[in-house]
Amino acid sequence: MGSVDSVRTTTGWAARDASGLLSPFRFPLRNIGVEDVYIKVICCGICHTDIHQAKNDLGISRYPMVPGHEVVGEVLEVGSGVSKFKVGEVVGVGFIVGCCRACNPCESDEEQYCKKKIWTYNDVYTDGKPTQGGFSAAMVVDQKFVVKIPDGMDPEQAAPLLCAGLTVYSPLKHFGLSRSGLRGGILGLGGVGHMGVQIAKAMGHHVTVISSSDKKREEALAHLGADGYLVSSDASRMNELAGSLDYILDTVPAFHPLEPSLGLLKLNGRLIVLGVVNTPLQFMSPVLMSGRKSITGSSIGSIKEVEELMLFYKEKGLTSQIETIKMEYVNEAFRRLEKNDVRYRFVIDIAGSKLDQ
């Protein structure tokens, strides 16, 4: 990866402290190395993780921090060794921009589990310089961590696939849950959850949305096409559906009990934790043992998987439900996202916000 130099700079919106408040910030980009792609950012999705990081909820934040890891842009320049991309193509950048390339995960095309991976923001390159994300006008990224957006796909539609969509697609593929005929549950109907419904339905699954209240019932059934809706506080219905699900994708990014979900699983059922939670989750072991059930986790997905997902979405004719905003609205968008007041993913119109003007 090239070294950081002040010759080329760009503007992003950065958090300066744990308040998480974002404001304009000018910062240097790396020189374009042999394997690098210089990208003009078109749009960038907003994820709950952006809030966690901006507010130092996980205790690992570095400031100033430019968030953003669902980045779609246009290639403006490529290094002399770049073979995957050409100037003018529309491309995407997800959650990581570096890895060791030599460990077992890297050699198995699962670089998201590399212990030396470099996050798109709130991290440092191998030379110690900070990474900054897609809430900015431009990025320089190694071609290995860039994906082509399929021709004809809207950039705003592609952005949520780079994290939210990938987060649910990867475990379904890895755990052998992509075959048709399964019965799945989606716990939490937010940005990740709504994509979980779409992807699972497109794979031929019977899908039940599990929520803490009844307020999203119509949205889940009438608009997203879920087959069932279950309120977790409805003890009668929870008992009725006990042992009925092959898997549950747990997308809730806040503390919640696991036992109710475990009770819904069949023999050998799997609860897959996808939400970032900064407090310990709890369960009683007999609930797990009585059905040989398992609790597991999954982190985003690989470059190979996001390329598969892009083609899957295009082939199936799927679209994400998004709300497009300008950068000036980003702090209000953060506040709304914390209250789950979005259907279902914010995408920032970076190009339209004219950050470098």
From TrEMBL:
Its cofactor is Zn(2+). It comes from Nepenthes gracilis. Pfam families: ADH_N, ADH_zinc_N. The keyword Lyase does not apply. GO terms for molecular function: oxidoreductase activity, acting on the CH-OH group of donors, NAD or NADP as acceptor; zinc ion binding. Gene3D superfamilies: Medium-chain alcohol dehydrogenases, catalytic domain, NAD(P)-binding Rossmann-like Domain. PROSITE patterns: ADH_ZINC (PS00059). Belongs to the zinc-containing alcohol dehydrogenase family. GO terms for biological process: lignin biosynthetic process. InterPro entries: ADH-like_C, ADH-like_N, ADH_Zn_CS, CAD-like, ER, GroES-like_sf, NAD(P)-bd_dom_sf. It comes from the Eukaryota. This is Enoyl reductase (ER) domain-containing protein. Keywords: Metal-binding, Oxidoreductase, Zinc. The keyword Zinc applies. Residues 20-348 form the Enoyl reductase (ER) domain.
